[in-house]
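Section: Multi-chain targets

For targets with more than one molecule, the full set of components is provided together so that the structure can be written out for the assembly as a whole rather than chain by chain. Components appear in the order listed by the source. The example entry contains two components.
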Amino acid sequence: MNEKASITPTQLVDDHSDYLLSFAMTKVNDIDLAKDFVQDTLISAITKLDSFEQRSTIRTWLTSILNRKIIDYWRKAETKYTDPVSSFFQSDTKKTHWLTEKHLGDEPSVSEKMDKEETLSELADCLDTLPAQWKGIISSKYLEEKESEQICNDYEITPSNLWVIIHRAKLLMRDCLQTKWK
Amino acid sequence: MKYCQDITEMMERTAVERIRLSDKIALRFHLFICKTCKRYYEDSKTMDILLKRRFKKIDQYSFSKLEKEELIKRM
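Its structure, encoded as tokens over all components, is:
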């Protein structure tokens, strides 16, 4: 009768599981964790198939369920700490600031290297060295291009937390890139 | 030193929330006189472009055949 009625688990897995796994890996660094997220997503999708309204494609719908699962996971992880933002700022990232730590000038700038082909893969490596939750935030901003307000709501952080995280993430990534170029 | 930290943070702040005109002017002026911050500013903009480019093509991961069968069973 409609497209919905004919969706089977096999179809969902065959058509979407690899895509969902690839998407999850833009948000987390751990392949097993990513696989768990995809499994949870597919299981809840098949049980909630009735609520799929076909206003979007099934892939978009699945991605939004997956996104929700990842965000819920981080939220739960966050509540284990007394200060909800404390774990965003691991002590070693907080201690030193780039300006107090060293004089800049001899390191190549990112701008100089931007057109080099390997820079993108180096950047991908550096993304993986960021504190775990940051990767999800960076991916929301640069892959999904979500509005800041939306990201703050999703991760339950204030706008100040958000720009401080983006700022620190960029500092760490630039440091990481410059170390690679030495 | 503290001032450079504030300035570099402000670069991200402007993308997230509205900042006062006087802060914007302070930012511009500081970038004019401080080479280190100017360079960071350029790198920050470049990283915006690179991050977008990086995510244009996401890495492909896949489940093994066995894992897929396992998944279907669990569903």
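The CA atoms of residues 107 and 178 of chain A lie 6 Å apart.
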